[in-house]
């Protein structure tokens, strides 16, 4: 990853730490007390960079509100013509408002959000992220963060503790930005979702409540419930009798309910086999799984047998829980409406599958679903979701090429066509699940990309969507004479469809 | 006795030099700033950060600027230790 860094404090000690990671190449570093002109002038030099880190310390320099707004506006204007992502430090409080130890950090957030519309705008800018310096300062305290003498002598106002913290925070964030988000969380039951072993201690021996022994597990369940709302799929993976676990969820008043788990692998089989099975059922890769257990043996065996699953250990102590909940694998780059609805969609999917078994033919089944397609063209308000689709979709994806929101805007401005597909059936609304990009050059049309979320696969929707686009191109007097297709390790379903439309090698040529 | 403590301090300081300036940097009690290529201003900063973290010296700005030899560093640590005992 190609990284540039611009900072108003001497940042070499931090760079030294970050540079130890072989996948992060720091290729440009600018220290300047004039961040604004630097940002406005740096444009061309940062072509081809993946990430720009902007580290500002308004506390050390006691910047005025107006100055902070000026810097953030410069970040925003730079962001609009930068193809990579920008990470900005979020310690936007200044010395003039007094010590953050005295005032409430949340209030400062509020002050900024209410008063500075520029922060609001930045939060909505697709390639700008804030990395959490305030969290780090809150963790070790202001006194252990700053060494003002070093600040005045070298413009490097930090202690070693803080240098270490901010370095590892930045590394985590950079890795997070570069990787795909996780999609599913699978959790063990005994001593993970509650204290105690159901099979030995019985229902009465299980604790998950607000009392001192059960509170950690209670809060862990509340945390998982939050994650579910953010679009993570929850699953159980536990060695227990399914009826016992179901009873526990029904009889104990815990934050999570039995139906919150989309997949339940409660049996005595090998946990990694269970996870493989679950991956198949959900139609997502094991590399988007998080697995949480208290048992070192289970964790090790999953690490060995299914190494692409990301495992985390929950121990019965509060620090362990705090550390776990802070893990970047639980974070979302952006939350969309579809994320919040995804869980309901997977449920509808299970109902669909049960119908599948009772109807006679697949065609009957499809007809019984009453599938409805809704297709938009160059609809700017869909771009957030479309950009996310280009990043997350693996299986039915002609090219694993990602588009930022900005890139989509530019693409559509050049007379190209962006077709967005919404699908609904009698069980529910899938939201925006498909995309076709058409390059338009003179009277020629090139299919630049075609992708369909795995949630919509297996319903022959791709044929209808493709036909719609062909018809629409026809109406516009355009001929489709090329299709770009790149084989990846994961896109076999797209390959199948590509072969189908390319049977006679007539209108299309592979890239 | 005093020799021994100074030896221990020197060993720790040598280790901190490596952390601040790189593993290949070896200093002795007689090493001064101009004698080590790696001992530039950025690495001086790194060294001060390491020293503050290891010995909690609370150095003043004058002290930070004057610490230009290993001997001075060891002596300063020694004097701070003497005070706190």
Can you put this structure into words, describing what you see?
The complex is a heterodimer of chains A (511) and B (85). Chain A is of the alpha/beta class and 511 residues long. Chain A has 3 domains: 2-178, SGNH hydrolase (Rossmann fold, 3-Layer(aba) Sandwich), CATH 3.40.50.1110; 184-330, HAD superfamily/HAD-like (Rossmann fold); 370-501, Aminopeptidase. Chain A has helices spanning 12-18, 35-41, 58-61, 65-79, 105-115, 117-124, 133-140, 148-154, 160-178, 198-201, 215-229, 242-251, 271-282, 296-305, 318-325, 337-358, 362-369, 383-392, 405-413, 461-475, 492-501; strands at 2-7, 25-31, 51-55, 85-89, 128-131, 184-187, 233-238, 263-266, 289-293, 310-313, 372-377, 396-397, 417-425, 428-441, 444-452, 479-483. In chain A, the strands form 3 sheets. In chain A, strands 11, 12, 13, 14, 15 and 16 form a 6-stranded mixed beta sheet that branches. Chain A has a 5-stranded parallel beta sheet with strand order 2-1-3-4-5, with helices on both faces. Chain A has a 5-stranded parallel beta sheet with strand order 8-7-6-9-10. In chain A, α1 packs across α9 and α7 packs antiparallel against α9 (160-178). In chain A, 34% of the residues are buried. Chain B is mainly α and 85 residues long. Chain B contains 4 helices and no strands. Chain B has helices at 2-21, 41-55, 61-66, 70-84. Classes of the chains: A alpha/beta (511), B mainly alpha (85). The A-B interface holds A 10, 12-13, 16, 147, 149-150, 152-154, 156, 158-161, 163 and B 41-42, 45-46, 48-50, 52-53, 59-61, 64-65.
Strand residue percentage of chain A: 15-25%
Which blocks of ≥5 consecutive residues of chain B have pLDDT under 50? none
Tell me, what is the CATH class of the largest domain in chain A?
Alpha Beta
- The overall strand count of chain B is 0
Instruction: Let me know the largest β-sheet of chain A.
Output: 6 strands, mixed
